Amino acid sequence: MSQATAPAPAASAPGFAGEQKNNDWIWHLSFGLLLAVTLIWFLFWTNGYAATDSSKIVFITAVIFAVFMAFNIGGNDVANSFGTSVGAGTLSIKQALVVAAIFEVSGAILAGGEVTNTVRSGIVDLNAIDGLDPMEFVYIMMSALLGAAIWLLVATRMGWPVSTTHSIVGAALTVGFITGKGGWSMVQWGEIGTIAFSWVLSPVLGGVAAWLLFGWIKRSILVYNEAADTQLREIKQRRAELRQEHKSRFQRMDELQQISYTNAMARDAALVAEEDFDPDLLESDYYRELHHINKDMDNVQAHRALENWVPLLAAIGAVIISAMMLFKGLKNVGLDFSALQNFLVMGMVGAAVWMAVFIFARTLKKHSLDRSTFLLFSWMQVFTASAFAFSHGSNDIANAIGPFVAVIDVLKKGEIADEAAVPAPVMIAMGIALIAGLWFIGRFVIQTVGSGLTQMHPSSGFAAELSAAAVVMAASLLGLPVSSTHILIGAVLGVGIVNKAANWNLMKPIALAWVITLPTAAGIAAVTVAILRVTF
């Protein structure tokens, strides 16, 4: 069986060659200006935020490193997040930009603080580096940013979706050893062990979740639709044959027989136009046989799977989206419901979405089964893409914000603190850099994830995104900086396994890139920290 009844429109996904050739200079110019203005504004803001006696050059360098890191996260991780949507033809790359701009930044601002704290101080035991010069700590964080960013840029250009979490954590720890402060004792091995376990678990959980979800979707909806579509085609063929047969019979009749038969058919046509007609009153053989054919078509119940199961899937997706907002975003802005209130809100949202999608599915009965399947899953994939963007913003924006906040906090206070507030302008600036990175360099990773690992359709893209969003959300709630890249790649491969179409040859260089991510980023960071210590 193929993976879906709907046509696969993503052979050349929107946002790739065709779209990119037209008027792209306007988009390039717009995003270039936006990024430049943001960087200038951010430099002015951070200049006023930090202490006046801190090194201006160090401060400016830290800002550039952080924005560069966020830019490359956008080109790799955010592009990885939207690869399935663009590859399935649900969103063009420009539409993906709009969704990312809203939900990535919202996730970072509303729900990103907890993970940022884990990256900044949960991995490194600040007590073990007591006596470390605060500026050495600044150099460690700055080098971690640059080491991770350069590796991300290289990997993105090669089309490899890699883990920014691996990059930033490995670089931060390695340069800690280079400074000779803290050594092995600076590492909170309990935290590292938990995070390492989650890294291993991420692609497995993503793959298993997507394999289960898409396997069920395929068996319950897509395979049913294919069987129903085959029956409908056979019935339409019977109807065409009936029309041709009676046309031949009519031509063999004499004139009086033709007049009599025409009058009978006219009366039958008027009869079948009535809402509840008695088929026994039909006079012509043509309409009697046509009635039996139409009855067989009704018995197929072609849209039954769409009407029964798609609203349920949409409701599940809505519950996940609302859960992210209630347990993460709204909690951080001070709206703290009780557990019962949270579940009641989630239930109401799920019920409302179920009813809305059910009504929408009923209105598609007059459309072809292929078209109805494509439309329903396309709408649902837009929502799951938004949910995954929110989860990604709440989780992986920490990779750029955490080390940078540590830097500006030290430059402001002159000491290494256990905690530091994350100012909203930092979130906004990094969010804008994310979107700019998605536009300028994200298409390489989008092509890999959207069509390289397996062919995407809205139904398979929906399954991969919903599975990945649920796993990332759960990890974010636990404060674990898991790799959303590994989770989504695992989910995409899970879909490919169901369809027996996973591109393992392409997965080999991606897996190799995952392995060398930590040492490569660490090596670049080690060189960077040595240069910074000499320069400043």
Fold topology:
Elements lengths: L16 H4 L3 H26 L6 H32 L5 H19 L1 H10 L11 H24 L6 H15 L10 H64 L2 H18 L12 H16 L3 H29 L6 H25 L5 H28 L1 H16 L10 H18 L1 H10 L5 H20 L6 H15 L5 H32 L1
Helix pairs in contact: 2-3, 2-15, 3-4, 3-6, 3-13, 3-14, 3-15, 3-16, 3-17, 3-18, 4-11, 4-13, 4-15, 5-14, 6-7, 6-14, 6-19, 7-19, 8-10, 8-11, 8-17, 8-18, 11-12, 11-13, 11-17, 13-17, 17-18
Summarize the structure.
By secondary structure, the chain is mainly α. 79% of the residues lie in helices and 0% in strands. The chain folds into 3 domains: 17-221 and 370-535, no CATH class; 244-300, no CATH class; 304-363, no CATH class.
Description:
- This protein has three domains: 17-221 and 370-535, no CATH class; 244-300, no CATH class; 304-363, no CATH class.
- It is mainly alpha-helical.
- Residues 1-19 have low confidence and may be disordered.
- 79% of the residues lie in helices and 0% in strands.
- Helix 3 (56-87) runs parallel beside helix 6 (134-157) and helix 11 (304-332) runs antiparallel to helix 12.
- It has helices at residues 17-20, 24-49, 56-87, 93-111, 113-122, 134-157, 164-178, 189-252, 255-272, 285-300, 304-332, 339-363, 369-396, 398-413, 424-441, 443-452, 458-477, 484-498, 504-535.
- The protein contains 19 helices and no strands.
